[in-house]
Amino acid sequence: MSVQERKERERAERERLIVATARELAEQQGWEAVTTRRLAERIEYSQPVLYSHFRGKREIIGAVALQGSTEMAAAVRAATATAVGPRARVHALARAYLDFAERNPAVYDAIFQLDGGLAYAQEDTPEPLKDAFAALLESLGEVAGNGIAPGLFTEVFWASLHGVATLTRSGRLPPGDTEARVELLVDRLPVD
Amino acid sequence: MSVQERKERERAERERLIVATARELAEQQGWEAVTTRRLAERIEYSQPVLYSHFRGKREIIGAVALQGSTEMAAAVRAATATAVGPRARVHALARAYLDFAERNPAVYDAIFQLDGGLAYAQEDTPEPLKDAFAALLESLGEVAGNGIAPGLFTEVFWASLHGVATLTRSGRLPPGDTEARVELLVDRLPVD
DNA sequence: GATTGGACCCTAGCACCGCTAGACAAGCGA
DNA sequence: TCGCTTGTCTAGCGGTGCTAGGGTCCAATC
């Protein structure tokens, strides 16, 4: 059995390598540069090996998205944990979210823009995605205000951050005023 | 001279045909189905003809974006014109914006998601794009509130709508609650 | 009206993409 | 030691955006 275990270990290790390499390449040169040929060359295997781990390129994107989602949830929780008071937590959350998006654009795209073949907002949504939303909900739910469902408020605040993140990065919003935009959102949307 | 004029007319007409066909194909089957081969076949010319009008596929997307941008500005102005009072105008604007995004997903993507080689938020930004932003500014600028620049407020409100539009369409926000989300934004962000 | 020049368009092909069939080698169990 | 399974690679399919080069047709000139 030991042989089989070793093989499984090595296989799992190679899968991690594929995902890490795809992510690295995407962050360095953008997702359009992540081709199966380049990816195979970087991990020093032939193309078909990729397909013994993933159904296709889409699933690789999905794997990066799940990994990134876990990290984002952690980043948001870490930022909100040290803040005192509901509004301060929301402010910290917003900064952390946009900071993550700016520092990890390719990962952010994998989670929120590209098609990674993942189910969103459903029962069979992968746990990391659910948990990332939960991380937002923890700080945003408490400032939804009367008559507004915490989930709905979280969705709207999240969507606003998403809009700022994506429009800024694509150059459709002038760069540099992000902090002012965050303050406007944090001032007006939440209710103590 | 008449011959040359006729040729120029025909050439302009063919260019319109290319843009219209690209748009139609994109709305029918998505932008990934808009290939230069299919596009050429539909307009009943060979591929290289496309390149005598546009530098490449990107520029065709850009042309669709400019056309759509003009339409969106008109749609927003039409919706806000009949509304009475600042908040009602904002509400009408939000509905019109999301309605346009939902009815013309491919055009919306050309304007706000894809790379059409256009300059945004700069001096040399094409007029239709500037005007679309101006259309938003006309109704949103008046509810920015004290100490908030109308442009900044418009950017933030727009980004929020953009987030709702894109996350909903990609299935990352559950469908159906759009009206509630709009009301939340319209209730909280503007200041009379 | 014939000739010539140039504008115009098409065929064919480049390098690349995601993905897969089938040959082949390596290593395990009998 | 042999047979077989498992795993990997080479090669190739149909597609992509884009372009070089040849041929055709038509307008202007003599």
Automatic annotation (TrEMBL), chains A, B:
<dbReference type="InterPro" id="IPR009057">
    <property type="entry name" value="Homeodomain-like_sf"/>
</dbReference>
<dbReference type="InterPro" id="IPR050109">
    <property type="entry name" value="HTH-type_TetR-like_transc_reg"/>
</dbReference>
<keyword id="KW-0805">Transcription regulation</keyword>
<feature type="domain" description="HTH tetR-type">
    <location>
        <begin position="12"/>
        <end position="72"/>
    </location>
</feature>
<protein>
    <submittedName>
        <fullName>Transcriptional regulator, TetR family</fullName>
    </submittedName>
</protein>
<dbReference type="InterPro" id="IPR025996">
    <property type="entry name" value="MT1864/Rv1816-like_C"/>
</dbReference>
<dbReference type="Pfam" id="PF00440">
    <property type="entry name" value="TetR_N"/>
</dbReference>
<dbReference type="InterPro" id="IPR036271">
    <property type="entry name" value="Tet_transcr_reg_TetR-rel_C_sf"/>
</dbReference>
<keyword id="KW-0804">Transcription</keyword>
<dbReference type="GO" id="GO:0000976">
    <property type="term" value="F:transcription cis-regulatory region binding"/>
</dbReference>
<dbReference type="InterPro" id="IPR001647">
    <property type="entry name" value="HTH_TetR"/>
</dbReference>
<keyword id="KW-0238">DNA-binding</keyword>
<feature type="DNA-binding region" description="H-T-H motif">
    <location>
        <begin position="35"/>
        <end position="54"/>
    </location>
</feature>
<dbReference type="Pfam" id="PF13305">
    <property type="entry name" value="TetR_C_33"/>
</dbReference>
<dbReference type="GO" id="GO:0003700">
    <property type="term" value="F:DNA-binding transcription factor activity"/>
</dbReference>
